[in-house]
Amino acid sequence: MDFTDLTIKSASELLSQKKVSALELAQMSLKRIKEVDDKLHAFLYVAEKESLESAKHTDEMIIADHEHSALTGIPYAVKDNILVKGMQATAASKILENYKATFDATVIRKLKQVSPTMMGKTNLDEFGMGVSTENSAFGPTKNPYDLSRVPGGSSGGSAAAVAAGEVLFALGTDTGGSSRQPASFCGVVGFKPTYGRASRHGLIALGSSLDQPGILAKTVEDTATIFQIMAGQDELDTTTLPKPVPDYSKFLKENLKGLKIGVPKEYFAAGLDPEVKTIIEQGIKKFEELGAQVSEMSLPNVKYALSAYYIILPVEISANLSRYDGIRFGLSAPGKNLEEVYYNTRSAGFGAEPKRRIMIGTYASSAGYYDAYYKKAKLAQGLIRDDFKKAFEKVDLIVTPTSPNVAFKFGEKTSNPLSAYLEDIFTGPLNIAGIPGLVVPGGLTKQGLPVGIQLIANHFAEEKLFMAGHALEQSLNLKLKPNI
Prior knowledge:
globular, Amidase signature (AS) enzymes
């Protein structure tokens, strides 16, 4: 049995048939991590002792109950900005280097109820600020398809861990594409739900009006299985809504007859890599072959999304990161007075990118500039939401590229932050509008680099994403696997 070939579905079937135990799966995962993570650096912390103890307990539970969930005993990883009680939660920042979580995030608490095996915490751009995982205070993660290239970000560690077969799924977060873009770069499935569909409680806050928990997995079916557990209202997060959660597995079918799919012309403008464009267009043709009705459409205000995003997000960052003051938790650098403690702590604890965004956000929200920047960005956000609302009156889904390019080489964008910010051009609009998105692997370029196809649905229509994504995945039948 090759652990790297397993999916959640196949591993769960093996557990049911008593052909493998949860402990054996955990041992296989640990073996794979030891084999490849020195090259990848996907993990910031490997929970070897905890995972083996958890897996033994799970096996005892399965023997006693004779029943288990599809996720029971499945090895998974967690992005290191999601709290797991008693475990480190650094957000890849020196300012939280020695911090240990005192409670479980709601998504972790929900998963614990079905007993998957948590293998450790994965690397990210510091506090989720970045598109390459180069901004981690603890060193970059590498792309399993080409170690000279980035895995994407900010959930690069989670995407690389799944792509390299270290775990069968991983949790990420998604503020402007942080689960979907690395999924595209690493050839896995990436998912961001509707804002308000899953709890943010226990996610280290970046942009509170944009953040969502994300999923990185090998298949769309696996993704739907995970999200079935994660979705729903949470009294600890007042932004979650009391909407019933459907049985997503019932929507996994391959017949898309009558489904209306829109292709926005704004997403196929200058700057899109020709090979990326070709792979996306091939995916769109597949949808037509599967019975969907495909038509060109327009999102006229989406061109303002990136500008609005990079004002709204830094303003929220400047507010959220103000809690790291050297007094309550995390790093504390001494000073002669309180002001000096703040200054020394933040100077030593924050990396260059958080400092840059804090300054942008503080400036954009300050007296005299609020109306000129933040207020206009919020008005643009309203226009973008309206664009998507009108679009979904005519179509069921929208199909777009995920990124303008494939995974780029290390250092290629570090000297020019603006070029890195442009990575969010196709993913950021969904967070601005609060709508869900799913990225499905579409193929490989001539260099052997993955390209993901992004599917977009209306608010709380995740089942349509899973339906179309599963159909596309089955039709393409790619079986991508890096040689590492």
